[in-house]
Amino acid sequence: MKRLIALTMTLGMILSCTACAEKNTENSGNSAPLAETQKLILNAADIRLADNFKSIKCLSRDPLGGNILTFGELKSGGYAGFSSKNDFGDYTQFRFTPQEGEFICNAALLTGGRKAVLTTLDGETLIYVFDRDGNIQKNLNCGEILTKNRFSNIYNCKDGFIINDDNSILTIVSLDGEILGTIDLTPYHVHGVSIDSEGIPTVVYSGEDTTYTAQIEKTKLVNKQECSVLTDTAYTMTAGFGEYRLAAMFNGMLYGLKDNSWVKLCDFIDNDFNSTSIYSLTMTGENEFAAAMTDESGSTMKLLTEADISVLESKTVIRVANLVAGDMTNSTARAYNSAKPDSPYRVEVKDYGNASSLYDDRITNLHQDILSGNAPDVITFNSEITPGSFGARESIFVDLYTLLDKDTELKREDFLDGYLEGLDFNGKLLQISPCFVFKTMVVKDKFLDGLTSWNYDQFAEKIKALPEGMKINTWENQQMNYNFLQLMDYSEFVDYENAVCNFEDAGFIKAMNIVRDNHIGLTLEEYDSWMNESGGFDVYTPGQYINDESMIYDMDLGGWFGLRQTLHAQFNEPATLVGYPNENGNGSFVQPSNCMGIMANSPCIDGAWDFIKTVYFSEEYYSNKNGVYGSWYYPTVEEYYVKQLEEQKNATYTDENGETIRGDKLWIGPDSDDFITYYEFTDEECEKYDKIVREAAKDVRQGDNVIYNIIREETMPFFEGEYTAEKTAEIIQNRVSIYLSEKYG
User: Is the pTM above the cut of 0.85?
Assistant: First the structure.
């Protein structure tokens, strides 16, 4: 058996002790490693006090007095703050009625049972102070402090108040509303600001790869200490309790700061709510928390208490690799664990990086785990990492056909005709996907002159015949020319199963010449100029296809809604799914999404398969009920594919007379009636496009960033006039051939 080719990059976390520019600070301690071991499993119970609120603005706890403030908009009207103990039983309240045009930023519980509400009105910042009995004690006008409303908070300090403007500027205000000074945090990446467990205002920030905590005293940062390195901004940060100085939510997970180390307390994968919906948190006791979060009804509150972990410890753990920063993999683990509490398996997520990790580094970590025998059970694939990344001919992954053939709930015949065969490799199904995107080009019929597909010469003719001022597509003046080789789709020149390629084919050479000779896209010099002028922000003009400003719509079409919106809202007249130019018929195909494979050496293959089919091939997945948004794409399972098509065909809306009309409202631009259209997805259209998509589903092509990067690197000299198309094709052919031989040979 051939040995796998391993990446040899050495990973390590370099912690530098860079001096802070802030003066009058005390620096002590060394950066501790980020402790990733989960400490808690938390039970969640609804807090009935939340039933009084239409929406909850924030939670605030006085770490010295112990009381907790719940502030928000009442269902009965107006705003109020309820002050209670940590059982959220009996409470006292105060009412607040904003003036017309006044924006409520936040509220805080102060020492001695007082409360403060922070607002803005006509550009001025106001603080309302209430006494312990709920009466207004002070009404302070602090002038123009806040530049933004959304992320502004107020904290208690011994000098008065600290106002946090979007984690960038801290303004210290006296008890009489006088501005005592500011602390500018903009040089740093601020992770969060909060009162700590001792009631001291504290900021957590990073600079030069080192993370610090510092206390706020008057207008300076003092007692600065290094802590374990952070990369994400906290959704919410709060005073800690017991051994934890602070607690915070980072990327959907709960952490506590203990001895200058951020310890992961809970990842919530055993709970039935999405932890990224938590926007305000307070630590109410030893390993106990109260959380305000959004749900379908608006806002709710849950009391999170420590659960008996022994039941979970008896389960077999299924580890799923997470290569992408975000909560998607956690959502699927949570969906399985909450849907099957009596299952003998428990799904955990193995993170291979964080928000600041380079993707190559994450893949390197995964490679090293596989080679060391510490591989996860389930791996997710995309254009960056495919079964071929590990050597496709090696028996690293389970042939999923063997699991489908013995399964009683999910079988081969449940999938769209030809889809699995298009996804497999030499007769083995090394990965499986619940959905796909439809890749094609859409062009108005009046520009095609009867064409239903096109080859390279026909494509070039249509480009040359463009009316003056009309662009090829949306991004023609905003992307470099090598990107437009994607219009030709290089995948037709690659044969993975035989580990060969044919980039010296006349078609690829013709494609390069078409892009260069027709000045499609920007040269390197032009791109640099555009970047300097625009800052790199793409500009999409609504209505440009309707108004014949651009000809080709070549974006991915995800699901039947995406296709219907493109045809009806973007074009508004007859158009054809003409596909990508090639010499072999219609160039439409599909690209799999959410691909997964199971490691062949997994000690629990049956459990891994149960996780995949339970979460990804279910009604909940295809209806977006488990936080994975499967309905955004075309289902690969026949039953759900047909159901999604029928939903679009039977869509209705209510017109201005209150009548139900077959069709839907389709938004394509700014808030203007000129860009809202109403169309019925007719039976004839459904039948026509259903045939096209089903045929494309037999041609499954997975993106390959290795080949894309080779083409990008080697065509840049061609577009700068340094090489001929033939010489460039030869270089690409040699490089891709080596890659295919190593990974697929």
Answer: no
- Ranked by mean pLDDT, the top range of 173-182, 208-217, 400-409 is 400-409
Q: Decide if pLDDT at 671 tops 80.
A: no
Phi and psi angles of residue 364, each rounded to the nearest 5 degrees, phi first: -60, -45
> Is residue 32's pLDDT more than 70?
no
In angstroms, the CA 58 to CA 74 distance is 13
Beta bridge partners of 649: none
What the block records as the tokens of 532 is 């300097």
Cα angle for residues 345, 348, 350 (degrees, 5° grid): 145
Task: Detail the DSSP E strand segments found in 277-411.
Answer: 278-285, 288-295, 298-306, 316-322, 345-351, 378-381
Do the beta carbons of residue 213 and residue 204 sit within 8 Å? yes
For the record, the structure tokens of 339 come out as 């849907």
For the ranges 149-158, 239-248, 394-403, the lowest mean pLDDT is seen at 149-158
Angle at 139 between CA 138 and CA 141, to 5 degrees: 135
**What is the H or E stretch that residue 115 is in?**
strand 115-121
pLDDT of residue 231 exceeding 60, the answer is yes
Distance, first Cα to last Cα, the chain: 12
- Helix axis angle for 506-517 and 705-719, nearest 10°, is 50
**Beta bridge mates, 91:** 84
- Rounded Cα distance, 397 and 428, in Å: 10
- Find the Cα–Cα–Cα–Cα dihedral 547, 549, 552, 554, rounded to 10°: -90
Across the strands, what pairs with 213?
204, 225
Neighbour-count burial for 567-582, b at 16+ CB within 10 Å, e otherwise: bbbbbbeebbbbbbbb
Strands, E assignment, 555-633: 575-577, 589-593, 595-598
Q: What is the rounded (10 degree) CA torsion for 278, 282, 288, 292? A: -30
**Number of other CB atoms surrounding residue 622 within 10 Å:** 26
Cα 635–Cα 327–Cα 350 angle in degrees, nearest 5: 100
Q: Is the pLDDT of residue 257 over 90?
A: yes
Query: pLDDT confidence of 60, banded at 50, 70, 90?
Result: very high
Q: Are 572 and 447 in contact (CB under 8 A)?
A: no
Q: Which two tokens stand for residue 621?
A: 């997945």
For tokens 């390959």, what's the residue? 704
Query: Distance from CA of residue 597 to its chain's centroid?
Result: 21
User: Percent of the chain at pLDDT above 90?
Assistant: 46
Which helix (H) or strand (E) segment holds residue 422: the answer is helix 419-423
Name every residue whose Cβ is closer than 8 Å to that of residue 503 and which is 6 or more positions away in sequence. Answer: 490, 493, 729, 732, 733, 736
Q: Would strands 278-285 and 676-679 be described as parallel, antiparallel, or unpaired? A: unpaired
With a CB cutoff of 8 Å and minimum separation 6, the contacts of 685 are 567
The pair of structure tokens assigned to 628 is 């994975």
| Among candidate residues 293, 292, 361, the one with its CA nearest the CA of residue 324 | 361
